[in-house]
Amino acid sequence: MMEAKISMILLLSFVLLELFGCFVQGLQCWSCENADSFEHCEEIGKFEECNPSQRVCGMEVRKNSFQQGGKIKVFKFCKQREACGNVLNQNDKSAVEVTQCNPKSPNSVCRCCCEGDRCNVGELQCLKLEKEEEGHEVIEPPMTCSPMMEGLENGEVRCTNGSNVASVCRFFCSVGFYIDGSHVTICHPVNSLAKWSDDAPVCRRSRCYPQRPLSHGNMKCSDEDLYGSICKFSCDDRYQLIGEETSVCQADSPGSRYGVWSTVGQFCEINRCRNELTSPANGTILCSDRNNVGSVCEFQCVDNYQLSGSRYSACQKNDLDRPPTWSELTPNCERRQCRNMPPRPVNGHISCSDEKYINSICKFRCDVGYELDGESQSVCVSDGSYKKFYGEGGIFWTNQSPTCKLKKCQAVETPQNGYVTCSRENFIASTCNFVCEKGFSLQGASESTCIIKKNGDEVTLEWTEESPTCEMMSCPTINLKNGLVDCSNNFNVGSECKFACTANNYMLHPSTATKTTCKSDGNWQGEFPCCSRPCPPFAVVDFVVVLDSSSSIGRENWPVMLDFLNSIIDTFEIGEDAANFGVIRYNKEVDTASIINLNKIQDDKTMLKELVSNLPYDGTGTRTGHAMKYAYDFMLSTEVGNRDFAADVMLVITDGRSQDNVKIPAEEIRRRGILTLAVGINPGTGRLDLEQLETIAGTPKRVFIVEDGFSALTPEYALKVAKSICPSPCEN
To answer: How far is the C-alpha of 705 from the C-alpha of 683, rounded, in Å?
Structure first.
């Protein structure tokens, strides 16, 4: 018994799942034609989407005559429910041999239908196939329940497989009706018969809860409180209906026993205007009898506000079909205002604190370069004691708009012995030009323009330049350093000035420039001289000499080189305002122990020459580039006597080719503004490198080649080298 119940539960679950799939999508049936067997039908067939009118799946099994081999043919398809009922009835109708559906006989035709998505797949439950001993197939019709569940008044029935065993039929009522009975019945076998699990239910009309009685009124319903009934409401005299005039009993939800009224809460109220009027914003209201018929309400506004709308409104009774209404809507209290804004002044602006409302203050200002002519502000007032402008209806502006007129700069001062002409009458952008009389020169700007000047929020008009003066014309002041200028009439036009040098050892250059005259155009005639000293012996220079003491010089030639250097020193005066000398000797290294710095001997030429004569000689190698860099780094610095006002000179004396790079230090030295010279002594062995010497000096003009060797290092040759460092006379 328990196993039968479990089988039934599983069967119901399967049927319900199939039924749910049918509702989710359109019906699908297996389709094939003229198949030789059920297996062949599955091989050649496919699922077909049925059209909406085809609600069941069908199948036919035909058996041919013995002459045709007695084989079966299988057909599967979509079918209309009514057509399916017709063909099922033909199974039991008479034929040549007992019935049309008789699988034991040839020419048999058996038909079957089922409800549910894809229900005709495989060998249908409605056709049972058995094998006879001789091998022929036997087809028996399926068991069915009776009666067929074909229709439901005020509803419908949906079955998964018609009236066949295991078919599940569900019942649905139309809107406004509910099921009285079971919602589902199942066709299941009982012994040798098939029987429905429940009888078909009845669809009964839904009912709404009764409406509440209407006090002081009447309610009439078309069909009591049943679904679809319409109730109409009306009130007694002197009362009005509040709410909708009708209410309909409607369905609450599909299949619900109870309905709902479309409207509820109607009641009869004594005649009055539905809403009490409220006071307007910034105003008050006073009513004689609240919102009852005949009540009159009066509206008033607070100070500085006025009514926009009617002052009074009455609650009036209308005809019987309409409730009482107020004669007027609540008015607005609008702020009082002057009708027109003061006009904006031309070339000016206006800004108001509260537009054109009462007590608004409008202030006027002019564009830059303009000034107000009139009052700077105007107030919107209602006091009649004010002067009235741009107003009416008792509200006025206190002042009319001012005008903006152009500002002027103050008149410029005309220079004595001159005159001035101005454009635009001293208004903005006016330009004044100043001219002096003949014989006078303009001291100051020749023109001045009237411009706008801002200082914080203050704006003023000013001239770009002060008025100039006209002074008697003169030539530029003459200064003669280390000399005297003696003029007949100062530096005025026509004055003659004579020049003379007063400092020791200084003389005029050029020597012919002894005087000059101030011409009428304010320029001096001719060129100015300078007071200069002859070079040599006078030259304001810091002179650093770099001596080659390599083994190629030879001990016997070393004194000759030192005497040559002393001859160069002899050509110059030494001192604070003259030349200073520094000397280093080098080979592959710099001899730092014997260095003579610029500040070591600055005023005693004899002692300086003695230090030079005592310079030692030793060493090998020739690293001229290294020695030049050392001289620049350590001998031309302020710590050892280098003077800012003196020219810097570096002289290299060598007889051989440098073993290191001289280009980099030489270019760096010249980039620092130091004059470089080179004296190359030809030793006769071919080791002198002219190109390298030119690299050291920077130009062939500052390279001196002693072709005849050390014997040619004479005082005369020393003078030639010394003169090459002399600047132009007026620079010395």
So the answer is: 11
Residue 172 lies in a domain: no
Q: What are phi and psi of 606, to 5 degrees?
A: -65, -45
User: How high is the pLDDT of residue 384?
Assistant: 53
Same domain, 449 and 575: no
Amino acid found at 701: K
Q: Is the pLDDT of residue 627 over 90?
A: yes
Q: How crowded is residue 98: how many other Cβ atoms within 10 Å of its Cβ?
A: 12
Domain around 255: 217-270
Do 709 and 561 belong together in one domain? yes
Q: Which of 245-259, 499-513, 522-536, 622-636 has the highest mean pLDDT?
A: 622-636
Eight-class DSSP state of 709: G
CATH number at residue 16: 2.10.60.10
pLDDT tens figures, 172-231:
998 989 999 988 888 877 766 888 889 889 999 999 999 888 898 999 999 989 999 999
Query: Do β-strands 377-381 and 361-366 pair in parallel, antiparallel, or remain unpaired?
Result: antiparallel
According to the per-residue pLDDT averaged within each range, which of 130-139, 342-351, 512-521, 685-694 is highest?
342-351
Cβ-Cβ contacts under 8 Å for 48 (sequence gap 6 or more): 28, 29, 30, 31, 77, 78
The conformation of residue 253, written as its DSSP 8-state character, comes to: S
Cα angle 113, 117, 122 (rounded to 5 degrees) comes to: 60
545 and 656 fall within a common domain: yes
Q: What is the pLDDT of residues 572-624, one digit of tens each?
A: 999 988 999 999 999 999 999 999 999 998 889 999 999 999 999 987 889 99
Pair (714, 685) in one structural domain: yes
Helix (H, G, I), strand (E, B) or coil at 152: strand
| 228 token code pair | 């679809």
How many CB atoms are located within 10 Å of the residue 343 CB? 10
Question: What pLDDT does 370 receive?
Answer: 86
Where residue 92 falls among pLDDT bands split at 50, 70, 90? low
**Burial degree of 699 (CB within 10 A; 0-12, 13-18, 19+):** exposed
* CATH number of the structural domain spanning residue 655: 3.40.50.410
Q: How many CB atoms lie within 10 A of CB 216?
A: 15
> Is the separation of the CB atoms in 403 and 366 below 8 Å?
no
pLDDT for 320 equals: 62
The three-class DSSP label of residue 250 is strand
60 and 79 housed in the same domain:
yes
E strand or H helix that includes residue 531: strand 530-532
Sequence-separated (6 or more) residues with CB below 8 Å from residue 223: 229, 230
Instruction: Specify whether 515 is located in the same domain as 653.
Output: no
Do 572 and 689 fall into the same domain? yes
Q: How many residues does the chain have?
A: 732
pLDDT of residue 729: 78
